[in-house]
Structure to design on (300 residues):
């Protein structure tokens, strides 16, 4: 998404991503940071084609003196786009991350009910997903944790949590703010190494120059774990491909993209020859695997 027009990339990703459905009433959780500011602005941009009705909420946790600056940013944004806004002050003075998170979601759910919203949208992005998966790994979590954050899940009765930008890098969201000349605030607690998530964030920042596709790879792994855990149709199709190739002892050195191309063909009922690696291909006919083909051939 590093193109000349990040605003188009972000808006197109939300509009075509399928995470938000046409006609939904959405409460946007906006903290005043660049990610949530970009989310609110992008949702406003696609609200008409998706027929969305938007409201916004700012949650003041009461633990940072600079929270008033964040609130000012959100107030300006809501006024600029004419989005109804609720400012929510938490009564809890707990400082641990889990309690603050629970209190924040409780407040957002209450606001969503008042506004008649069935969806709460948050600005979790690609790097957040990597951090979540790595934290789960360090905790020794099972498939539920290693599956990362779902793009959408139930949060409370008749209210769902949606993450429309979970596949978008934070730098693209920040570039969106710059392209639109939108103000945003920077959370000073992001620099505190004592917080576990911040420590993981710093480690991942060091790794990304060495592994440019790190976040895409982690997101892909989380998706695979999640789909295997839930035994989705796509997971079953991947398993059928592995079984066909495993019977021929051809599982090594296969590019994930080639497997996914075959999976999509099976889902769509198409026919064709899909090369897994040089000399090895799957024959698919009308959405069914017809065997493994050996011989010369280039990747498809």
């Amino acid at each position: 998404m590093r193109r000349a027009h990040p605003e188009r990339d972000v808006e197109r990703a939300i509009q075509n991503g399928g995470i938000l459905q046409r006609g939904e009433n959405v409460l946007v959780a906006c903290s005043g940071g660049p990610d949530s500011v970009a989310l609110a602005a992008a949702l406003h941009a696609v609200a008409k084609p998706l027929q969305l009705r938007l409201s916004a909420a700012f949650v003041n946790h009461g633990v940072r003196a600079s929270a008033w600056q964040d609130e000012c940013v959100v107030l300006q944004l809501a006024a600029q786009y004419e989005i109804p806004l609720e400012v929510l002050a938490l009564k809890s003075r707990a400082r641990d991350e889990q309690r603050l998170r629970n209190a924040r979601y409780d407040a957002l759910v209450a606001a969503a009910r008042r506004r008649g919203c069935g969806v709460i949208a948050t600005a979790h992005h690609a790097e957040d997903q990597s951090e979540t998966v790595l934290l789960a790994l360090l905790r020794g979590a099972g498939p539920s944790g290693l599956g990362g954050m779902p793009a959408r899940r139930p949060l409370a009765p008749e209210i769902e949590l949606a993450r429309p930008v979970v596949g978008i890098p934070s730098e693209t969201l920040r570039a969106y703010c710059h392209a639109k000349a939108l103000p945003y605030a920077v959370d000073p607690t992001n620099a505190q190494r004592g917080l576990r998530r911040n420590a993981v964030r710093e480690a991942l920042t060091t790794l990304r120059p060495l592994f440019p596709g790190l976040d895409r790879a982690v997101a892909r792994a989380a998706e695979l774990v999640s789909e295997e855990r839930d035994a989705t149709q796509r997971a079953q199709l991947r398993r059928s491909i592995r079984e066909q190739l495993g019977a021929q002892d051809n599982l090594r050195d296969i590019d994930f993209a080639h497997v996914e191309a075959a999976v999509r063909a099976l889902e769509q009922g198409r026919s064709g020859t899909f090369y897994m690696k040089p000399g090895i291909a799957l024959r698919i006919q009308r959405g069914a695997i017809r065997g493994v083909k050996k011989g010369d051939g280039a990747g498809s």
